[in-house]
């Protein structure tokens, strides 16, 4: 049993500017790990799971760590250029194209 | 940021499923989607102070919520997520996280306990999140006309009220379709208003 925020050395908020919405999609870049950065095992697990573009909620569910912890670790990885946030949805209720996709999808069920 | 479909990046969307305790939120989500677990262990926010009073318990700085969410993958690289809003007031801090970027919300109502969905309605109204009311037709529950329910919930004339059976996939599908159609027409109207 490890206290969850021990993995983040007590940090509860991500570093850097990126925000990590539940359904934002993240992907690992092919950048090399900088000399000064020592990724922990959880950082490596996230990098491995994000080889393909992955929604943060799926990543969190898969890795079985609390969402807040995953956000801090993602903050480290984006700050080091190792992960990129690909998409964010802020105003989906005004996004007719997305709404049409969802409607078509639901009606095809 | 536009979504790029050519490189395997999924488009994502989410809908909130809200309503009082025991109204059938989990049943509804399970009827139509794959259920996945999500752990959140959030630092105590200012808002939870006073609800979870930590005086004298200085070691407790996080609060744990184990929750489920629903996931529907469509052929078009679209993934739709259904998030049930946690019912207890001490989990209010989760609501903003769930609500940001949501298409809209389904407020599930039980005619035997309509007051249970007031908190959800208040939240969505005050945050400008479009919602519809889905009345879960429990076998023993009294049947009301949608207009009676509208009055009981003090809803404006525009908010759709649909009847459903949260156990039935087709019924749940119709609820979600109703919500998306409502949001589409509502956002056109809003856009027109902001242009004109």
What features would you describe in this structure?
The complex is a heterodimer of chains A (109) and B (196). In chain A, 39% of the residues lie in helices and 10% in strands. Chain A is built from 4 helices and 3 strands, in the order E-H-E-H-H-E-H. In chain A, strands 2-1-3 form a 3-stranded antiparallel β-sheet. In chain A, helix 1 (41-49) packs across helix 3. Chain A is elongated and about 50 Å long. Chain B has one domain (11-195): 3-Layer(aba) Sandwich (Rossmann fold). Chain B has helices at 25-32, 92-99, 118-126, 146-152, 169-195; strands at 11-19, 34-43, 62-73, 78-84, 104-109, 131-136, 161-164. Chain B has a 7-stranded mixed β-sheet with strand order 2-3-4-1-5-6-7, sandwiched between helices. With 196 residues, chain B is an alpha/beta fold. Chain B has 5 helices and 7 strands; from the N terminus they run βαβββαβαβαβα. In chain B, helix 1 crosses helix 5 (169-195). The model of chain B is unreliable at 1-6 and 46-59 (pLDDT under 50). The interface between A and B is large, with 44 and 55 residues.
